[in-house]
Sequence to fold (419 residues):
Amino acid sequence: MPPTEHTWCSWDGAELFYRAWIPSAASGRALLLFHRGHEHSGRWQELVDTLRLEDVAIFAWDARGHGRSPGARGSAESVHQIVKDVESFSRHIRERYGIATEETIVLAHSLAAVTVGAWVHDYAPPIRAMILATAAFEVKLYVPLAVPALRLKQKLFGGGYIKSYVKAAMLTHDKKEAARYEADELIFRQIAINVLLDLHDTASRLLADAGAIHTPTLMLGAGRDWVVSLKAPRRFFDGLSSTVKRMDIFPNAYHAIFHETNREEVALRIRTFVIERFAESPAPHSFAQADRSGHTFEEYERLKTGQGGPNRFTIARAALKVAGRLSEGVKIGWRHGFDSGLSLDHIYRNKAEGSPGLGRLIDRSYLDTIGWRGIRQRRINLQNALRSVIRKTQGEHRSVRILDVAAGAGRYVIETLAG
Fold:
């Protein structure tokens, strides 16, 4: 079945390209395909035909910077930008085609397995299941200290690209498929350094917190993969809290398992898993006992008791006690609470205070931590939301009244009204 071609407006306004295979007997269910690095959506056609999912709508995007989507080739502002694109694409499918997120399964290959895994972890979408194929949780760079060297290069000389060392013959045993890959003009064989480093960091946090994911999962690995290590995907799989999870390894396959000589076997595993998951009613995971058992409880106990030796939490707590004598922000936190109105007011002012020199330096470091930067961004988001509702209410010729029962000093409310 040939696809129809479309574009959708991503979260930041970019018009990204995708293909859609809509069956005549659609059942309100969807399979979303996310290609690996250097690829594009047109290379999914054979898999779509082989799956023979007659009542499932299938969608495949060209990630920004790939295929027919705009953007610098092989690049993005960050991996987080791509993760937000995944959320935007999922929302578009829901809104345009009327397919509920609960009736959606996602399939992601290689690098996309990390970005889609991050979407499932960070956004917790109520999807029916996810399939991660040859997941790039650990890329084989082969050069000693490659990641630190690339970080130094980026810091000293800015961005840049890394050309893929992997030839088509190292991706698949199928010579015809290797030739098609080499001749495909839509394939860009480089990756931006910032994306590669972001991929490494995102994969590291997913490996550390895989237990937060409860989504039914099928993982597919290649036994002779030149691109990614099998060790990291196994670790991710073992850490998942999913009650339904399966990992299949194809011992003789190279990385591009959807273009390998045994790709029909790969497609059969996927088809079986998809049919099984859609056949069963979705069973949302209950967190009613999360304070007594499970991944989050165990993590809390480790942090509280310091099991396994000093951890970042205990070290940070000790450092804050010392810093509290010098930094005004830390001092306010210890005295009134780090989530108190007085603490937040200090965070919003974003002005380093404390004993001259070292104290103000510590306070600046405290104010610049990612959590407090997020709080300041939250204030901007709140102000924008307030302005939007005020304009809408005024446009309807209705009176504007604001009630905030936990505004603290109310700074962002007053600033919005003043603006």
Q: What stands out?
A: The chain has a mean pLDDT of 92. Strands lie at 4-9, 15-21, 29-34, 56-61, 104-109, 129-133, 161-163, 190-192, 217-222, 245-250. Residues 101 and 381 are 25 Å apart (CA to CA). The first helix runs from residue 45 to 51.
